[in-house]
Amino acid sequence: MTIAQALGSFAVLAALLTIIPGLDTTLVLRSSLTQSRAHAYATAFGICSGAFVWGAAAAVGAAALLAASEVAFTVLKLAGAAYLLYLGISMIVASFRHTAVPETDASARPTGRLTAAFGRGLLSNILNPKVGVFYIALIPQFIPQGVPPLGMGLLLALVHVVESLIWFSAIIFASQIARRWFTNPKVVRWIDRVTGGVLVGFAGVLAVESTP
Q1: Alpha carbon distance 87, 26 (integer Å)
Q2: Angstrom distances, CA of residue 30 to CA of 2, 52, 207, 210
Q3: How far apart are CA 42 and CA 31, in angstroms?
Q4: Are 135 and 58 within 8 A, CB to CB?
Q5: What is the pLDDT of residues 36-75, one digit of tens each?
């Protein structure tokens, strides 16, 4: 298998997995609808940075602990579930505490720091062992013989990142079309409650996930 063939094959598989609705899409969509385009991209870049970390780890074999050690997988799984649970509950609680904002002045609603949005994306990705298992299972299969593993792993991760950013951009721009309606304070509160509920659900699924 040549490098070009490996990249092409991986790109097809990664593209199919990217468009499947999941935690990443949920976080980016929520940031776009309730905060701003900049916050949505900050979240997306955080997620993609996590993908690079997993790609490098899988390429050099460090992340193989997840596949070989039940303890390592369980610790990371519970940490990820706890973080998602914290995010979900925080959103739900905050939605009931928001100070009422006049309908005509919805833009005055605080949007939070871009670094916080980046951090949410990064941590949600790094603390998700399912992402690690995805990279562990796939990246080694697409590293041609004789090619430096770390460099090829990062190149494959870059392919996934580019595809993810294209997908996130489509979500962000589509959501911005309806943003005027979604900036209604009542709608924003319900978006946070629904998103929080989804994150709590993801936390529950992650917590009971069995070791691969």
Answers
A1: 12
A2: 40, 23, 23, 28
A3: 9
A4: yes
A5: 889 999 999 999 999 888 888 877 765 566 556 667 667 7
